[in-house]
Amino acid sequence: MRQAVMLSAAVLAGFAAPAMWGTFEATYSTGDKISGKVSGTRGM
Hints:
By secondary structure, the protein is an all-beta fold. The chain has one domain. Helix content is 0%, strand content 66%.
């Protein structure tokens, strides 16, 4: 049986039509970490 893994996450995002941008960071109870940037533009 696989042990449960806890996750703590933080997201910071900004929106200004039609665009969005932001960053994220996550830390798992195993000690692994992941972070990155996101961006996008709304298409019609």
